[in-house]
Amino acid sequence: MYERAALENNGDKTLKLAVASGKGGSGKSTVAANLAYAISLSGNVTLVDCDVEEPNLHLYFPSTTEEQVVTTPVPVVDDERCTQCGRCGEFCRYGALAVTGNGVLTFLEMCHSCGGCMLICPEGAIHEVERPIGRVTTAHPLPRLTLITGILNEGEVLSPRVIRAAKEAVGADPVIIYDSSPGTACPVIETLEGCDACILVTESTPFGLHDLRLAVEVAGTLGVPAGVIINRSDGKDAETRAFCDEHGLPVLMTIPFDRGIASLQGRGELFSRAMPEWQEAFGDLYRKCRALVGRPV
Amino acid sequence: MKIGITARGPTIDSPCEERFGRAPYFIIYDTDSGDTAAIQNELADAPGGVGPRVAQLMHTNGVEAVISGRVGGNAERALAAAGIAMYAYDGGGTVGDAIAAFRRGELMRIV
Q1: What is the mean pLDDT of chain A?
Q2: What is the pLDDT of residues A40-57, one digit of tens each?
Q3: Which residues contact A268 (CB under 8 A, 6 or more apart)?
């Protein structure tokens, strides 16, 4: 079902970087897209959009895509064999099955595909079928850049399953960049798991700092080394920088609150493509990330 | 007939709880004998999927009607499948007040 080993056996040479943040709208996708673009100028890179509830990296990289369906196993109850003993409904902590005297009701969108109901059924009345919950698309928008996008179907909740499928779709490129969803919950943890390092994007506001603290805790708990990018900086970053110093977090880059950058961004353009100094800065960011994990270029 | 009333405490004098699946207690009241029993809801703080599970709990306890404030879609589907009626009470009183209103036929059936 979940082939974690396959992900971990990518070989030591692959550099896996996650871009995350506590706060939404802080600039994760901007950083991920520009970093991937800068790396692609000198080597192969895969960018993975793990923000499966609202993926948007494709806006920077319009291209044709190949699509595969993501499914998850869910229970089907054989009414002929079911004695309505109720064990499956009592077992399921997600409320995906309820036994109410008129057969077993299933609430398949609640199912987390643990398979426990099938194991606990004394009558062997439950088997699993695959239910589609999302898609993974693959595109090659630039000669050395592959974009993989996870998309969770509307109304579904099992985003970690789609994130995992997107991660499994990654090929053999030497650098993989995973763009996370905001927050600190399951989708972020699924994205960060197995990464060599994590770039946390924040902004110099109380909201940015508050959520950065939470994101630092998540990265720390998962044992993923982290560095910080301060985005839309108005120059008043003392508090954020003090926090980073205190927690041993390198500030890898500061992006100013700049009309030129904002206007390129607003048109869905990569500012590192339009502004050569930023192309260089993102190349430098890549070298700092390699240094962060002890594997300098 | 047994009715289950969602409550904030374990007695008939406890205030009614408006939420169904996340009620801290269920008071099971037998309309024939007048007996009451309290069930503490272990799912009150569960992360999700409580509606169908509490509906199954009501069914397992032989409850034929539920009095609560509101009910979500999944719980409604499970209650309907179990043939359990649900009546809305929003009077802000105790479990005893809700039972009295039910007995007077004042509560609207919503499932």
Answers
A1: 93
A2: 999 999 999 999 999 999
A3: A59, A60
**How far is CA B69 from each of CA A115, A194, B52, B74, rounded to the nearest angstrom?**
34, 46, 16, 15
Rounded to a whole number, what is the distance in Å from the CA of A266 to chain B's nearest CA?
Answer: 38
CATH topology of domain B2-93: Nucleotidyltransferase; domain 5 (3.30.420)
Q: What is the DSSP letter of B20?
A: S
Contact A95 B77 (CB under 8 A): no
pLDDT at A43: 95
CA A239, A241, A247, A253 dihedral sign is positive
Q: In degrees, to the nearest 5, what angle opens at C-alpha A124 toward C-alphas B62 and A165?
A: 105
The full set of domain ranges for chain B reads 2-93
Q: Which CATH architecture has domain A7-70+134-292?
A: 3-Layer(aba) Sandwich (3.40)
Q: With an 8 Å Cβ cutoff, is A101 touching chain B?
A: yes
Residue A12's pLDDT band, with cuts at 50, 70 and 90, is low
Name the interface residues of B facing A (CB cutoff 8 Å).
46, 48-53, 55-56, 59-60, 74, 77-79, 81-84
Q: What is the CB neighbour count within 10 angstroms for residue A165? A: 22
Q: Which residues contact A174 (CB under 8 A, 6 or more apart)?
A: A13, A14, A15, A43, A44, A45
Answer whether A102 sits within 8 Å of B82, measured CB to CB.
yes
Q: What is the CATH number of domain A79-124?
A: 3.30.70.20
Average pLDDT over residues B59-81: 94
Measured distance between the N- and C-terminal CA atoms of chain A, rounded to whole angstroms: 36
What distance in Å separates the CA atoms of residue A156 and residue A134, rounded to the nearest whole number? 8
Going by pLDDT thresholds of 50, 70 and 90, the confidence category of residue A103 is: confident
Chain A, 70-89: which have a CB under 8 Å from a chain B CB? 86, 89
Q: Which of A100, A113, A114, A159 would best serve as a mutation to test chain B binding (most B beta carbons within 10 A)?
A: A100
pTM for the whole structure: 0.83
Pairwise CB contact (< 8 Å): A95 & B49: yes
Average pLDDT value for chain B: 94
Least Cα separation, residue A252 to chain B (angstroms)? 37
Domains of chain A by residue range:
7-70+134-292, 79-124
Determine which of A88, A91, A105 to mutate to test the interface with B (most B C-beta atoms within 10 Å). Answer: A105
Which residue is closest to B45 within chain A, CA to CA?
A: A93
